[in-house]
Write a structure and sequence with these properties.
The chain has one domain (about 1-165): Metallo-dependent phosphatases (Purple Acid Phosphatase, chain A, domain 2, 4-Layer Sandwich), CATH 3.60.21. Helix content is about 20%, strand content about 30%. It contains 4 helices and 11 strands. It has helices at about 15-20, 40-45, 65-75, 100-105; strands at about 1-5, 30, 55, 75-80, 85-90, 90-95, 115, 125, 130-135, 150-155, 160-165. The relative contact order is 0.20.
């Protein structure tokens, strides 16, 4: 199964729409927090129709109630709070928004795949049997300077991850 992995959207609807157009071959979408506004759920569901979307909260999801309420409108969207754990195609998976929580879990080698975001730094690194993935921010900003917006598609059967980067948008100085 191909899993598209997004993080740190921060309401950047333009990058989100571009990324969604590039993940249409994926069968599942995992969002690792910092969507920010509830309307991002609408864009996710409409841009990735008829397939499951799993969302965990980050530290910049301002309206948990309304983000969660969207699951009544879009039944294939599921909000998991701060942790997502599952097994797909025999691969155990864990996701949490925070790098400082997820990386020690990846280093424990308890899971085949550990996903995280938060620090706006793309990272795909192996710790023994565990592949740790930070897809980077769809926002395309690291807090000080523009950086390439990025996301990852993970293939459960091969265990391989492929990074996609969006073109850098002009940024006012």
């Amino acid at each position: 199964m191909k899993i598209a992995i997004f993080s740190d959207i921060h309401d950047h609807v333009w990058n989100l729409k571009t990324a969604l157009a590039q993940v249409q071959e994926a069968e599942l979408l995992l969002c690792l927090g910092d969507l920010c506004s509830p309307f991002i759920v609408d864009l996710l569901a409409k841009g990735f129709p008829d397939r499951p979307i799993h969302i965990i909260f980050g530290n910049n999801d301002g309206d948990h109630f309304r983000i969660h309420a969207k699951t009544k409108v879009f039944p294939l969207v599921e909000v998991h709070g701060e942790i997502f754990q599952t097994e797909i195609d025999g691969r155990s998976m864990y996701a949490n928004h925070f790098n400082y929580i997820a990386l020690p879990i990846a280093q424990s080698e308890k899971f085949d795949l550990v996903c995280f975001g938060h620090n706006h730094r793309h990272q795909v690194e192996r710790f023994g049997k565990t592949l740790a993935i930070n897809p980077g921010p769809l926002l395309g900003f690291d807090g000080e300077v523009p950086i390439p917006a990025s996301f990852v598609i993970y293939e459960t059967l091969s265990g391989e991850a492929r990074t996609y980067r969006l073109p850098m948008a002009p940024f006012p100085s």
